[in-house]
Structures are given as C-alpha cells and as structure tokens.
Design brief:
Domain Peptidase S1: 24-261
Signal peptide: 1-18
Structural class: mainly beta
Bound molecules: 2-acetamido-2-deoxy-beta-D-glucopyranose
Organism: Leptosia nina
Order of helices and strands: HEEEEEEEEEEHEEEEH
Largest sheet: 6 strands, antiparallel, barrel
Number of strands: 14
Family: Belongs to the peptidase S1 family.
Keywords: Disulfide bond, Hydrolase, Protease, Serine protease, Signal
Strand order of the largest sheet: 9-10-11-14-13-12
CATH class of the largest domain: Mainly Beta
Helix content: 10-25%
Length: 277
C-alpha cells in the first residue's frame, strides 16, 4: 500500500515535468487515477441555475475532506455538492453533500490566519482505484526548502480579467517550497494576508494556483509515503512571480485527528484520517 501510494506520486511528478505547457496556471492535465484523493466542492446558485466549482479539497478519509475555511465565506452548506472519483469537476464520479463543517476556531477571514476546515460528507466515499485518502504529516513535520510537491485543481487557467476560464479537466503542477524569509518579505505589504509559521510559500516560473483552486492539495513524500503537506490558501496573480501561500497541514495534524471522527455506525476501511509514518 505504501509502495503503491508513493509510486503513483512519483509517476505524477514525472508525467507533470515531462508534459508540455497547459494549465492550473502552467500545469498539465492529469487523470483522477493519478491523484485519486481529489474532490471538487461544487456550488449551486439556484436562481440562475449555475453550478461552479468553488473550491477543491483532498480526501483524508472516506468521511472527511480537508479544505480552506475561506471556501465557505458567504456560502450556504446545503448548496454544495462534493464530487470524488472524476477527472471532471462538474460530472462523473460519485457525489455527496455536506453533513457538517468544522472550521478551525482560530480562522481569521481578514488575514487568512488558520485557513483550514474539515468537511464531513453525508454519503461516505468508498475507496477504489479513483478514490483514495491522503495521509497527514505528523504534527510539526516541516518539509525542507526547495522540496517540490504536486498541486492539483480545477481552478482557472489565468486571471478572470485576462479572460481566464475554469478548467474542465483536472490539472496538476509541481511547485517548489521557498524560504520563509522570501514568503514573509513578499507579502509584507499585503494587508489581506499574514504570513505566519503556519503557512509556507511555493512557486515555479509561470506556474501556480489560480481562481477556484482554494484548498488545492500539495502532496510530497513524508518518510516514504505521499502525504498532504499543504492546502492552497492565497495567491497574488495566477502564475505570477509572487509565490503561492499554502496552509501548513502539519501544524493542524493533531487538531484534525481530534476532530475528524467517524460516525458511530461506520463500516468503511478508512473512516478516520491516518498519519504518515
Ligand atoms: C440554496 O439552495 C436552495 C435550494 O435549491 C435555494 O432555495 C437557496 O436559495 C440556495 N441558497 C443560495 C444562497 O443560493
Ligand atoms: C513594502 O513597503 C515598503 C515601504 O513603503 C517598501 O520599502 C518595500 O519595498 C515594500 N515591499 C514590497 C515587497 O513591496
Ligand atoms: C486586498 O483586498 C482588497 C479587497 O478585496 C483588494 O481590493 C486589494 O487589491 C487587495 N490587495 C492586494 C495587495 O492584493
């Protein structure tokens, strides 16, 4: 199992680095079998009968999806559909709705402090070749500067004002963690976000997250297992020179393990999250 998970991560790293330019911004199209932990959080606006992919999140068990707390600003929980097991965000795979949500109690909307939330799904997702949960890093596990991770999402290919559109097919990009000093200095004058030691920045020339990628997972090896090291929280300019900001999942591993409990009538193999070891 560990070997299998790692080999899919390594296979994606090679596929992503070899394939030609396309998008998230600057990413490449991937199949759900390459990143089977991906779930789309699709939002329904009934008055105009529009369904858009609002955020993304990785499965951390059959019952739980991790994403940003920011994703739910101004949103009604009943109007979300969670789709797993599909390369497309708006069709295919299996869907569920939200049972309830736990935002991190330290979340501050204005500065995106503690931008992380646990989504509990009503209908659990059964593990298959297209549906799998990601392991969490141990509490406090810090990835080294310069380490690359796979970031996946269905967000826009470029800024909306530049005529960007939503990706229909899943995209992945490899981003490299930069030093905390660069991260802090980059955003020193931006009052919309505060860089603390509970976030890190990652980038690559002309690549990055974009509109609709909030919650996009960054996956890298932890010990010898592909694990969820970060979720996309903030960006300034799609694929710009500003590195993208990720919530450090390892800062919240204990909080996630304490809160992501399974229903008592559980019956599935991976009903609660697991820590990489
Ligand atoms: C959510 O969905 C329900 C049922 O379709 C609808 O009545 C309601 O207006 C929606 N809420 C929002 C904020 O769109
Ligand atoms: C932030 O603002 C200060 C003072 O105006 C300026 O000297 C500095 O270059 C700015 N930093 C960035 C990254 O824009
Ligand atoms: C901060 O947010 C405001 C309101 O959304 C926006 O107008 C402004 O451009 C943002 N500042 C930066 C530096 O992104």
């Amino acid at each position: 199992m560990v070997w299998k998970v790692l080999s899919f991560a390594v296979a994606v790293i090679y596929a992503v680095s070899a394939a030609p330019q396309s998008r998230i911004t600057g990413g490449d199209q991937v199949d759900i079998t390459d990143v089977p932990y991906m779930a789309a959080l699709v939002y329904h606006y009934p008055r105009i009968n529009l369904r858009i992919q609002r955020c993304v999140g990785p499965l951390i068990s059959s019952y739980h999806v991790l994403t940003t707390a920011f994703c739910f600003n101004g949103a009604v929980l009943e109007n979300f559909t969670i789709r797993a097991g599909s390369t497309l965000s708006l069709s295919g795979g299996v869907t569920s709705t939200i049972q309830h949500l736990i935002k991190n109690p330290g979340f501050v909307s204005e500065t995106l402090l503690n931008d992380i939330a646990i989504v509990f799904v009503k209908e659990p997702f059964r593990i298959s070749n297209v549906i799998r949960s990601l392991r969490l890093p141990p509490q406090g596990f810090e990835i080294p500067d310069g380490r690359s991770g796979i970031v996946s999402g269905w967000g826009f290919d470029k800024e909306r004002v530049d005529g960007g559109t939503q990706h229909e097919y899943l995209q992945s990009v490899l981003l490299r963690k930069v030093t905390q000093r660069v991260c802090t200095e980059t955003y020193a004058n931006n009052s919309n976000v505060t860089v603390t030691d509970s976030v890190y920045c990652a980038t690559e020339t002309n690549k990055g997250v974009c509109f609709g990628d909030s919650g996009a997972p960054m996956v890298a090896p932890v010990y010898s297992t592909a694990a969820l090291i970060g979720i996309s929280s903030y960006y300034q300019g799609c694929g710009s020179t500003y590195p993208d900001i990720f919530t450090r999942v390892d800062r919240y591993s204990n909080w996630i393990m304490e809160n992501a409990v399974a229903p008592s009538a559980r019956s599935l193999e991976f009903d609660t999250p697991r820590i990489a070891n």
